[in-house]
């Protein structure tokens, strides 16, 4: 258990991030009058508690969507909703299909829900964690796209990240994203990830986007595709009905799944 002094430091650190959204180790060290080593340990403890994200030389506030967060952290956000969305997405898969499964916490939940006995299923993914989740599946072929590893998401991107995708014709691509907006379409926090998603869309006959309700009405930094590029959005019942209706009015089919909270 943290000492009283450490607890007070943690409160100051979180309050500072609440006001400024990010802070450096140097700034926090000078503010609190402790060493860089002490601040780094404070940040480590707070990150483990899911209260901030450590960055190079400092920390970022949770919920600041301008910054990409590691997969291990995003999996802690809305876990019940992601599991429900994952189950609904897995139920759309059919025997004999070739599917693409994108990186992300919600698509990981989908991979974990692919527990039925499929005949001759082929899964193409750029997520190493997803490939490992599915590697023991019987009657399935798991293909990893190749490319350059991004440890933050355990994903493979350019260079060479799109080469395989350009050579396949998938039945369905299941994609994640960081933002969905009726006018700005689907967006993501990382440009390299956005490029891979675009290649996945081009390689599939049908595109299904998986996103919990916190992604609706959000716009991330990298454009992925307009709403018309997707055939279906699967989200959860935490979504604002007005936002859902706005997306439907813009031409996007939306499946809202119930969540036991």
From TrEMBL:
Signal peptide: none annotated. Gene3D superfamilies: 3.40.50.1360, Winged helix-like DNA-binding domain superfamily/Winged helix DNA-binding domain. It comes from the Bacteria. Pfam families: DeoRC, HTH_DeoR. GO terms for molecular function: DNA-binding transcription factor activity. Keywords: Transcription, Transcription regulation. Residues 6-61 form the HTH deoR-type domain. The keyword S-adenosyl-L-methionine does not apply. The keyword Transcription regulation applies. PANTHER family: AGA OPERON TRANSCRIPTIONAL REPRESSOR-RELATED, HTH-TYPE TRANSCRIPTIONAL REGULATOR SRLR-RELATED. This is DeoR/GlpR transcriptional regulator. It comes from Siculibacillus lacustris.
């Amino acid at each position: 258990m943290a000492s009283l002094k450490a607890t007070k430091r943690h409160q100051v650190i979180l309050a500072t991030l609440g006001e400024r959204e990010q802070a450096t180790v140097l700034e926090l060290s000078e503010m609190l009058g402790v060493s860089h080593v002490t601040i780094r340990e404070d940040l480590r403890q707070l990150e483990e508690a899911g209260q901030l994200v450590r960055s190079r030389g400092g920390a970022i506030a949770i919920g600041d969507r301008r910054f990409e967060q590691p997969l291990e952290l995003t999996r802690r956000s809305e876990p019940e909703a992601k599991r429900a969305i994952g189950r609904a997405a897995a139920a759309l898969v059919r025997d004999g299909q070739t599917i693409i499964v994108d990186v992300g916490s919600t698509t990981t939940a989908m991979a974990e829900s692919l527990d039925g006995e499929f005949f001759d299923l082929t899964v193409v993914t750029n997520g190493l964690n997803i490939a490992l989740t599915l590697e023991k599946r019987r009657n399935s072929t798991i293909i990893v796209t190749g490319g350059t590893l991004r440890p933050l998401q355990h994903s493979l991107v350019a260079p060479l990240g799109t080469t395989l995708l350009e050579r396949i014709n998938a039945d369905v691509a299941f994609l994640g994203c960081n933002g969905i907006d009726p006018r700005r379409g689907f967006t993501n926090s990382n440009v390299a990830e956005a490029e891979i998603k675009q290649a996945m869309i081009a390689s599939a006959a049908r595109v299904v986007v998986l996103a919990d309700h916190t992604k609706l009405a959000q716009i991330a930094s990298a454009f992925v595709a307009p709403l018309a590029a997707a055939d279906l959005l699967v989200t959860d019942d935490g979504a604002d009905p007005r936002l859902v209706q706005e997306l439907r009015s813009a031409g996007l089919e939306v499946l809202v799944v119930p969540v036991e909270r």
